[in-house]
Design a protein that fits this description.
Among the domains are: 109 residues, Beta Polymerase, domain 2, CATH 3.30.460; 37 residues. 51% of the residues lie in helices and 9% in strands. It is built from 20 helices and 11 strands. The strands form 3 sheets. It has a 7-stranded mixed β-sheet. Strands 6-7 form a two-stranded antiparallel ribbon. The radius of gyration is 26 Å and the shape is elongated. It binds adenosine-5'-triphosphate and magnesium ion.
Length: 409
């Protein structure tokens, strides 16, 4: 049996990038031999094993053929006769279809190294079109390597367009899609992920609610970039520049969905878009089965981001409602993430990227004031049940009024 490093590990070493996880391919072996060497089988789908010590993935060389719709619609063939070249040809991109042995001898039948040098993301073979997930993967790699100058080869973009128009994208499961989307959002330039999906027509299929924002104008006074789609991409870009977590990036992507529903005669204004957007945010959340914290933050940011921007003008009672909605007393981190998303929204506007955002500290101060209300003295006064709740609210309101006065003094 011969063992090679493949995929990302080879690609990233050649790019001079840190290699985090290593995938291996095993040629000339069968399942029994792997088990005899102590490898542990993973799942029932593919002949993939975990190394008994390192835990890294070792896959038997295999060929694949499409036999139906979606990911289940694949038949594979693994046997000791399958060659390294046959295994590599089923891979998505040429830069991911290189292998190297323990002497770092490169096997590169599909010219991955040439494409690495030319900074091109190019499919290996027409079989690329057999798995719609590859559309998302290519967009994700574009987001990751845009900083190095990589772009998608026009022929590959053509296949991605074909896949988007064929209806195959709809066959993707929520789990597979979310895995790619969440990883793509955490890349250095997540806005490129959305741009590439839009360019090949996949955005219209996967997230029509986001696609609909392009071409929708906003008032130039607040939004020099005017276009809502362009704004959304800038917000995402800011979120990545400021190293925001996935929850914040997801909320940034979805915060303005309501603007896609505004009747044209109301353009460029978007009255109550925070409210109209909620059902769209909910739909996208559920479509991809986003994790609970991502779902929650996206909905809260959608509903309250304009409150964030107007924080300094909010009445004490409105501030209190905002803090209650976030349950800031038990979930302080979530409120921090809301503030971060608002700040990214404010900066994701043409020419305003460096602006200051005093609302952030103001909101933090308000949260601190409300949280400083002690419950013990109220208990000692004999409040309980619903009256206790009311008394706490009254005290918090007092604290917020005092805070506002102190701040405006
Ligand atoms: P990352 O740095 O994101 O891990 P990677 O290239 O290692 O990038 P993996 O998802 O770990 O990506 O997959 C390992 C390799 O398996 C890829 O480099 C590619 O050759 C192949 N591969 C993975 N998923 C697919 C797919 N859907 N279609 C074709 N080839 C795939
Ligand atoms: Mg990998």
């Amino acid at each position: 049996m011969r063992i090679y490093k493949v995929g990302g590990a080879v690609r990233d070493r050649l790019l001079g990038k840190p290699v985090t996880d290593i995938d291996w391919v095993v040629v000339g072996a069968n399942t029994e031999e792997m088990l005899a060497k102590g490898f542990r089988p993973v799942g029932a789908d593919f002949p993939v094993f975990l190394h008994p010590k390192s835990g890294e993935e070792y896959a038997l060389a295999r060929t694949e053929r499409k036999s139906g719709r979606g990911y289940g619609g694949f038949t594979f063939h693994a046997s000791p006769e399958v060659t390294l070249e046959e295994d590599l040809i089923r891979r998505d991109l040429t830069i991911n279809a290189m292998a190297e042995d323990d002497q770092q001898n490169l096997t590169d039948p599909y010219h991955g190294q040439r494409d690495l040098e030319a900074r091109v993301l190019r499919h290996v073979s027409p079989a690329f079109a057999e798995d719609p997930l590859r559309v998302l993967r290519v967009a994700r790699f574009a987001a990751r390597y845009a900083g190095l100058g990589f772009t998608v080869a026009p022929e590959t973009m053509g296949l991605m367009r074909q896949l988007s128009e064929s209806g195959e994208l709809e066959a993707l499961t929520a789990e597979r899609s979310w895995k790619e989307i969440s990883r793509a959002l955490m890349e250095d330039q997540p806005q490129i992920f959305i741009e590439v999906l839009r360019e090949c027509g996949a955005l219209k299929v996967l997230m029509p609610e986001v696609d609909a924002l392009f071409g929708v104008p906003q008032p130039e006074a607040h939004h020099p970039e005017i276009d809502t789609g362009v704004h959304t991409l800038s917000v995402l870009e800011q979120a990545a520049l400021h190293k925001q977590p996935l929850t914040v990036r997801w909320a940034c992507l979805l915060h303005d969905l309501g603007k896609g529903l505004t009747p044209q005669e109301e353009w460029p204004r978007h009255i109550a878009h925070e409210h109209t957007g909620l059902k769209l945010i909910k739909a996208v959340n559920e479509q991809f089965k986003a994790p609970k914290d991502c779902q929650e933050l996206a909905l809260l940011v959608g509903q309250y981001h304009t409150h964030g921007h107007r924080a300094l003008e909010l009445k004490a009672s409105t501030l209190l409602e905002l803090l209650q909605s976030f349950d800031v007393y038990r979930r302080p981190q979530r409120f921090e993430e809301f503030i971060a998303a608002c700040e990214m929204d404010a900066r994701g506007r043409k020419g305003l990227e460096q602006r200051s955002y005093p609302q952030a500290d103001y909101l933090r101060g308000a949260a601190t004031a409300a949280r400083s209300v002690a419950v013990q003295p109220l208990l000692e006064k004999g409040f309980k049940g619903p009256e206790l709740g009311e008394a706490i609210k009254r005290e918090r309101l007092k604290a917020l009024k005092a805070y506002k006065e102190a701040e405006s003094a």
